[in-house]
Amino acid sequence: MLIIFNLDEVMRVALIFNFILLLVTTSNSQKLHKSRFEYGWAFMHPYAAIHVKKIYKNTIMIYKGPENKLVLDSLESGGKLDAYRHVLFMAAFSQKIKAKKIRKLGIAHEKGNKHMHYKKKMEHGFLPDSIDTVMDLHNNELGIRIGSENKSLNYTELSNKVIKSLLEGEGIVTKRNNQGKFTDCNGEVLEQEELVQWNNKKCLIRSNE
């Protein structure tokens, strides 16, 4: 018996297969937290999702380089290292994938962070909040621009360009005092009761301040 599939059915099967492949092959210790919003993005963009996974595996080693903490800082939540992570990954993704798709991935990640907040789940030791979202989305856009404009750079060259952009103040970070505590824009230290709120008074400043 001859079974005939039309093109739409073949494409649908291929997309679902690639989506399942993505889920099966992401069980490693270096993966990022993935929310249902990010899995939804992967389901809609399975080919792009597979590229993202491959690029992430190559880029994570650049991000984890100890020299980055010397040049920037060691703050993975709200600091220059946090900004570097977002800009670098989005830049690397945008070298190979259309900016529109990568932008949607960044938005999906932030939706997941809001869900984490209300589930009281930490990210890098802190509850995600609305200020983090504004910071991340800004730094994502910087990364998308850098990657889109520098498609031929290798990962090390791309990292150097990202660091240069942050040291020149193109990214944004959250303000802290000399003791590393979050403050409002007037320099007043924010207490823990304030920081656990989704909307709080954390202050965003340029990454060269």
Summarize this structure briefly.
The protein contains nine helices and two strands; from the N terminus they run H-H-H-H-H-H-H-H-E-H-E. The chain has 209 residues and is mainly alpha-helical. The N terminus is likely disordered.
Tell me about this structure:
- This protein is mostly helical and 209 residues long.
- Helices cover 60% and strands 3% of the residues.
- It has a two-stranded antiparallel ribbon with strand order 1-2.
- Helix 5 (80-96) packs across helix 8 (155-167).
- It is globular, with a radius of gyration of 19 Å.
- The N and C termini lie far apart (71 Å).
Question: Could you give the topology of this structure?
Answer:
Blueprint: H1 7-24, H2 36-44, H3 46-63, H4 66-71, H5 80-96, H6 99-118, H7 130-149, H8 155-167, E1 172-174, H9 192-195, E2 204-206
Antiparallel strand pairs: 1-2
Helix pairs in contact: 1-3, 2-3, 2-6, 3-5, 5-7, 5-8, 6-7
Written as H for each helix and E for each strand, in order along the chain, the element string is HHHHHHHHEHE
- Annotation, overall tally of beta strands: 2
Largest sheet: 2 strands, antiparallel
Helix content range: 55-70%
Shape: globular
How large is the count of helical segments? 9
Unreliable runs, pLDDT <50, ≥5 residues? Answer: 1-5, 24-31
